[in-house]
Amino acid sequence: MNKTYLIPNIHCQHCVHTVKMELEEIAGVEKVDVDLNTKKASVSMTSPEVEQAVLKTLQEIGYPAEI
Ligand SMILES: [Cu+2]
After folding, report:
1. Cα–Cα distances in Å, from 11 out to 20, 36, 57, 59?
2. How far is the C-alpha of 6 from the C-alpha of 27, rounded, in Å?
3. How far is the CA of 66 from the centre of ligand 1 (A)?
4. Which terminus, N or C, of the chain has the lesser number of Cβ atoms within 10 Å?
5. Which domains does the chain have, with CATH numbers?
6. Cα-based distances in Å from 49 to 28, 29, 55
7. pLDDT for 67 beyond 80
8. Is the pLDDT of residue 22 over 80?
9. Which residues are 43's β-sheet partners?
């Protein structure tokens, strides 16, 4: 499945890199694309259960997703 999240705290290429790296370390996350202009992260994951870990990680690293 694929989900897109709006992450308002993304403001530069460093943020993009951090979010991408942290999310890609989560078990079940297959692919992450982060767009600096739209502040959106597109996350491909193996199952819906993975989403909780994605949201939790974003919260923990200071880039909470706006839902
Ligand atoms: Cu930044």
Report:
1. 14, 7, 18, 16
2. 21
3. 17
4. C
5. 2-60 (3.30.70.100)
6. 9, 11, 11
7. no
8. yes
9. 3, 32
Contact predicate 18/36, CB 8 Å: no
Global pTM value: 0.94
**Which residue from 58, 64, 66 is spatially nearest to 21, judged by alpha carbons?**
58
Cα of 23 vs centre of ligand 1, distance in Å, is 16
Question: What is the residue whose two structure tokens read 């706006």?
Answer: 66
pLDDT of residue 7: 98
Per-chain residues with Cβ under 5 A from ion ligand 1: 11-12, 14-15
4 token code pair? 């897109």
25 CA to middle of ligand 1, Å? Answer: 19
- Mean pLDDT value across residues 6-25: 98
pLDDT at 20: 98
